[in-house]
Amino acid sequence: MFFVRVVLLVLLASTFLMPAVSQQRDQKSTKSSKTQPSITREAEELRLSAISLLHSLAQSANEIENITERVRVLAEIGDAFWLVDPDQGRSVLVRGFKEIDKLSESDPERLATQKRTLRRIVLSRIAKHEPPLANQLIHDLPDEIPTADEKAMQRQGVATPNAEALLYIAENLLATDPKRAAATAGYSLQDGLSQRLRLFLIKLRAKDSAAADGLFAAAIREASAQHPARLFDVMVLWDYAYQPHDFYFNGVVWDREKNEPRQNTSQDLRRMVLAFAVNAIVENLQQLPASAESTQDRNLVQAQLAALHSVIQQLLPSMQADWPRGSSDLQQALVRVEQELRDGGRPFPSRPPVEDAEAGTTVIDSLIEKAAAAPQGDLRDSLYLSASFKLLQLRQYEKGKDVAAKIDDAEKRAMILEPLNFRLANELVEKEKLQDALTLANQLKTPELRIGALARIGRALIDAGDSQSGLQTLNTAQSLVSKADPTVELSAATLRVASAFAKSDPIRVSEAITLAVQIMNKVNQEETAWILMAPPGAGDALNLSWKNSEGGGLKSVKATYPRNGGLTDLLVKLDFNQAVSLAKAVNKKALSLAAQAAICRAAIESTATKTVTARSN
Fold this sequence. Notes:
This protein is mostly helical. It has helices at residues 2-61, 67-81, 86-99, 108-129, 131-139, 148-155, 161-174, 178-186, 195-207, 209-224, 231-242, 267-287, 295-322, 327-343, 359-373, 378-393, 397-404, 410-430, 434-441, 447-463, 467-481, 488-501, 506-522, 567-571, 576-584, 589-616, and strands spanning 246-249, 252-255, 543-548, 554-560. Strands 1-2 form a two-stranded antiparallel ribbon.
């Protein structure tokens, strides 16, 4: 009977509960159906606002008379348009690329530099979306016949202008899209292998080893199509397969980063390299003339023999270990090369000496000794200044400060103490000695250096959990801005303050950006203002310049804060309308339009993410 009652109670409870559960499900379903369209509608409204602004910007870009500035703006607009209308984006970017040919300049070298810079800006945007088009545009440019010097440089691993442009674009793509970066770099292979390609392969391998191996295999195929193959190509490919600490070629040692991780290379890939190397060496040896009449020709033959000798000597251990059957061909080639060198009265080339790590310290000690023996005055100060500067370059900041203290001239002493203190403060931040870094930063006299150092320390304090000290430090940095003379460097330093606030206080971010824009508007702006849009680099980056004096001393040292402030990166983190309003406040029209286009691109990218998120809910 008790069991029956329990069953009845359970059934009764379930009768009452089922409508409630059903009602909750209906409510959740209704809520979900209401939420999804609202998110999608909000995203669509933002997207339409960005597209509408882009059309307006495209019209305004036509009014920019300066070709350089017009091209920069078109690059940003075309890049943003591509996300919603690839045909329109492609049209704008190709138009910008063609506009570059309209540039004129009395100085041919300056004109070539301007064109090269602008082409890279436009091509880097195109390559993000359509690498084959970037390659086509590069190779559609009028061919310039390389000079004898340029041909010689290319044989030594210097990239051709076309390959240089493609690899520059590939390097910019590497962080976000390794596979597209590899595809873009692949187009450079038709112009031969280069040191820049070697460095790109090393970086690509660390990001995406499969993409790197694919590009490497393509490089072997392209290099094998050359007859005779270049000996430099042999060394680049061998370097990738075996990853030695360094290799040498024609008196130059090519090394790697000390802490660079080594990666396994398949046996098949190694054998491909060794087979290619044997064929290349044999072909080059067969191409040598039986006799050379002129002195110049004889010198060229001897240089080629020396190159062959050094390549064979470096490859032999790898050949003996991984492809013994190729060793005999290599040994025979070495015998002939050595015989030819003997006949020509030339010694066998040896490995170039490796730079002595202690050499820099020896030079510094010599400068200090000379300074100590010199009479008080300009000569002694210049020697101490030179020693202190070299210690700055070696990152021996404390010792550099000790030497700088011996400089009698206060102005010269300050020249080197500023960068030493700035670099040391940043090093202390890396070591998490934040209070010591703060004390040192407050000793800096140059406003841009002090503000930049305080911005970094303030952010570090906040990240370490000391928000009160961090915000106080950032407030101090921002208060210093109004007391300094307006410069592009000051605007960049102010943007660093804005970036430091970015994770904790959006209102303060907006205030700091507004202040940076106000400073920028007061500066006599030329091309330098554009760099404010570029992402900020390393925290301790300084632009250093100096003037030498007799006896190994220095007349002066000048350190300036970098001008890349990351304005675009900061603006896109704000509300769309607020960001556009701040960009419109920039009084340089081209810079303002470019910033607005970048904001539109970010908004369109974000709406795509929001739409996907809404559909998945």
